[in-house]
Design goal:
Layout lengths: L5 H37 L2 E6 L8 H4 L2 H6 L2 E6 L3 H10 L4 E5 H9 L4 E10 L3 E6 L14 E4 L4 H12 L8 E4 L2 H9 L5 E5 L2 H5 L3 E6 H8 L4 E7 H6 L1 H20 L9 H10 L3 H8 L2 E2 L3 H4 L8 H15 L17 H7 L2
Parallel strand pairs: 1-2, 1-3, 6-7, 6-8
Antiparallel strand pairs: 3-10, 4-10, 4-11, 5-8, 5-9
Helix pairs in contact: 4-5, 5-15, 6-9, 11-16, 12-13
Length: 351
């Protein structure tokens, strides 16, 4: 063999090695692509509704720890009222949401396809009837004929109805204006309303030029108009995502327990409060008193007789019956226990 011929004889060898390298690259690339696709498919996208108010669990959103705990890719969608949540649930636009007990009662009574899986918060001073300075309202009797704003169908609306009933009045005795919290804040700044029943952080803004007449907690204790926020889940999603829901509720119980056990540490300088503040658009110093006006159920409270142990269904039924008597809904269910599913919370609590 001479030197002219040697390159020709070597070509099959080089071609074979090149082909091996190409096949190997294709195999590795395909495996990587398949792994990435499998991971993307495995990660469930979940749309969760909330109201934009400061709550301990908002601290879990900023650092992605809630997504890490559940394995979900979460899209958070803010609503102005529970009526909007019901509309989104009816259309299938969300899978999980916070919702107030009044719109919850209305939604379940109308047959919406969701179930309550846990209590989210027990409302006290975080919702209140605030009277604008210069409105001429000095006592409850002065509410007659005044312009009072509230998100229609919300827990605040239910508490307003209770406050009126306490003083032998109904909605017909006032000028009732249905507004979102943002609209209430704008109308307040223009002196276009005399009072409003609303939640924080807007409530905090109103108090700069007003005073509280009743908190939701005071109305509950005086007239039995108890209000709370629940976590509700689309029925089909609940049946298909048990593991993720249990982990979701466990994370909620843990952060709520941390808040109540270590409240002093939840100060304006703490990373958790700063995360909550960033999520709702207020200062950390403002968040601290806002958080204080609510009870956040840990595992023990959530599974107690007052809540997932039977009490929640009774409260929902009582709320629904009042709403029907006031002409706000057309029908009620005979039993609301069928809509309250304690199994996910029970598993999350380790019961």
């Amino acid at each position: 063999m001479n030197q002219r011929q040697s390159p020709n004889y070597c070509k099959p060898f080089f071609r074979m090695n090149t082909m091996k390298r190409l096949v190997k690259s294709l195999i590795i690339g395909t495996a990587f692509t398949f792994a990435m696709v499998t991971q993307a498919v495995a990660q469930t996208k979940v749309v969760i509704g909330h109201f934009g108010d400061p709550l301990p669990y908002k601290a879990l959103i900023a650092d992605g720890s809630l997504e890490k705990a559940t394995g979900w890719k979460i899209e958070w969608r803010q609503f102005a009222s529970g009526a909007e949540v019901n509309a989104a649930m009816a259309s299938g636009g969300i899978q999980i949401s916070e919702i107030g007990s009044s719109p919850l009662s209305a939604g379940l009574s109308s047959g919406l396809p969701y179930q309550m899986v846990s209590a989210g918060k027990v409302i006290d001073s975080s919702e209140a009837l605030v009277i604008r300075n210069g409105s001429g309202i000095e006592k409850p009797a002065d509410l007659k004929g005044k312009r009072i704003a509230v998100p229609i169908g919300s827990t605040a609306h239910y508490s307003l109805m209770g406050a009126l009933k306490m003083n032998n009045m109904t909605e017909k005795d006032i000028v009732l204006l249905g507004m979102s919290p943002a609209e209430i804040a704008a109308a307040w700044a223009q002196n276009a309303i005399d009072a409003a029943f609303v939640w924080v952080p807007v409530q905090t803004k109103l108090r700069e030029n007003g005073k509280v007449m009743y908190t939701a907690g005071e109305v509950a204790r005086a007239a039995g108009f108890h209000t709370f926020n629940a976590w509700v889940v689309n029925n089909k999603f609940a049946s298909e995502n048990r593991d993720g829901l249990v982990k979701f509720l466990r994370a909620m119980f843990e952060i709520n327990a941390d808040y109540h056990k270590n409240k002093a540490a939840w100060n304006a300088d703490s990373p958790k409060v700063k995360a909550v503040a960033a999520s709702v658009g207020v200062s950390p110093a403002a968040v601290v008193p806002m958080l204080d006006g609510t009870i956040y159920p840990d595992a023990e409270l959530a599974m107690s007789a007052d809540w997932m142990g039977g009490g929640a269904a009774k409260t929902i039924k009582g709320t629904a019956e009042f709403l029907k008597s006031a002409g706000r809904i057309n029908k009620t269910a005979d039993d609301y226990n069928q809509f309250v599913n304690p199994e996910f919370a029970k598993a999350a609590a380790g019961k």
